[in-house]
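Pipeline run #58 for the internal structure catalog. This entry was flagged by the ingest filter as a single-chain record with no existing model, so it goes straight to prediction. Upstream metadata was stripped on purpose; only the residue string is passed forward. Reviewer on rotation: M.T. Logging verbosity set to normal.
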Amino acid sequence: MLKKSRPDGAYLGNLSHFTRMLPYLMPVRTDATIFFEQEFDVTKAMQLVRERNSRNSHDVKLSFFHLFLCAAVRTVALRPKMNRFVSGLNYYQRNQIVFNFVAKKQLTDEGGEINITIPFEPDETIETLSAKVSARVNRGKGDEGSEGDDINALLMKLPRWMIRLVIWGIRFLDYHNMLSGSFLRSLPFYATIFFTNVGSVGIDAPLHHNFNIGTCGFFIALGKIRSEEIRSEDGTVQKRERVKVTFTYDDRIADGIYCGKAIDLFKGFVENPEQLASPAEITPALRGELMLKG
């Protein structure tokens, strides 16, 4: 009998029959992929970042990406179904809010890339999150690196047939819920959301692929911030800052209405970031739905 318990999530057995059938109809994540893109007005967000950094009273500089991540944490905390995943044809509620993104050690063509995986609390604020992310990125850019990088380096020393065998073994063990929690935490594919901040290298957000390996159901790409002149209803012209954001998500996790409302909520937090200065009010009912460990 299939082992239903996992170290990274709680089994969900009380879903509708149709929902539980979806993984059988669409066995791999890319079968169920939906692409979506939106334009965010980030004028207020960029103003907040500049004002906060100009005070020079903080050890950690705030970036727009920090604010963007904080808005995503807040969204997942308030929309718990966004933290579900499908594994072994079953549904699970992830027991951490964990994000992954790629950082370059240097912003050059030759600069090496590192995967950064960070768990967050549902009541993160801009201040707590920016300190956490900056510390983790600095460690990753140093000699410490990450466990995932070490695993990749080890694998690439093997012959091709053996690498394929190892990847097959990981998929098999994952399907049967036999991978350890420490191993799952060492790989970037077991996260709530995988982010790519291509705006940091001056390009616009693509419609990005997801990965069939692992359990990450959402991929969010953040493009470059650009200035535009927008004519308002009264005829005046205002200079606004805007950015394109694209979403790639696994439609098996939650229905389109639920995900659409989550994206609207996320956009609202980014466009009105003053809400992120204080912790979210997480009710006992929401905490119960989130099923976070600890």
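catalog note: The longest strand covers residues 237-250.
catalog note: The chain has one domain: 9-13+28-277.
status: ready for reviewer M.T.
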